[in-house]
Backbone:
């Protein structure tokens, strides 16, 4: 793919994913996510030619201007869209497929000081919601969704939805519900667990209340027994 076709596809990605985009002029001059991607493409070209210092200088300047840090060694596919990208961090050995959407505060990082491949590989048409952390040298499969503030530490199969800390797969190979960008309407297994626990607690409280009622009833019967005996003895007294 040529340079101009890549630039056009990057601009098209903004219009496909952001309903607030009004004109190409506005997108080209005001979208920091787009600027960060273009700066990375330049830095990555120097990085591939082993001009590492120049590549890092471009990367750091882009970070200063946009708040988005992309290591020049990262590999990025077509139509990446970074929306409100402040705080986004993408590591050196990260690989990102086509038509991926990343929101603010996302980290695609490693888990230690290991050498070689240490950052995730993101498949095609993946949505990574705000604040999510994907850490480690594993793959997130195509068409998957990573929920907001999730921490993903294990591979994610294609067509899956992951939420929670640590990330749990809550949907896989199911029918897509709603728009792919509706990253706030995702199931939460932690909340579901709390609801189940609350239901169990309510049932236990009801059972305890029933046992208390039975115990009080038994005590009343035991107390009323001696009283009846006294009344019977008094009625039989000849005096």
Residues:
């Amino acid at each position: 793919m040529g340079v101009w076709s890549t630039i056009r596809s990057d601009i098209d990605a903004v219009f496909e994913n952001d309903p607030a985009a009004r004109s190409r002029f506005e997108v080209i001059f005001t979208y920091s996510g787009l600027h960060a991607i273009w700066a990375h493409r330049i830095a990555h070209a120097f990085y591939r030619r082993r001009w590492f210092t120049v590549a890092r200088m471009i990367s750091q300047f882009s970070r200063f201007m946009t708040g988005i840090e992309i290591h020049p060694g990262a590999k990025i596919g077509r139509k990446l869209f970074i929306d409100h990208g402040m705080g986004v961090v993408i590591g050196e050995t990260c690989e990102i497929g086509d038509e991926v959407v990343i929101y603010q505060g996302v980290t695609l990082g490693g888990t230690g000081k290991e050498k070689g491949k240490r950052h995730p590989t993101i498949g095609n048409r993946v949505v990574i919601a705000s604040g999510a952390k994907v850490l480690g040298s594993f793959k997130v499969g195509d068409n998957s969704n990573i929920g907001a503030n999730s921490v993903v530490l294990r591979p994610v199969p294609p067509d899956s939805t992951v939420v929670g800390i640590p990330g749990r797969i809550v949907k896989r190979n199911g029918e897509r519900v709603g728009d792919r960008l509706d990253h706030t309407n995702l199931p939460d297994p932690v909340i579901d667990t709390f609801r189940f626990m609350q239901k169990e607690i309510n049932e236990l409280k009801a059972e305890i209340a029933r046992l208390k009622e039975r115990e009080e009833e038994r005590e009343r019967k035991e107390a009323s027994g001696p009283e009846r005996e006294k009344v019977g003895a008094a009625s039989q007294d000849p005096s």
Notes: The mean pLDDT is 85. The helical segments are 3-17, 24-30, 32-48, 52-66, 189-235.
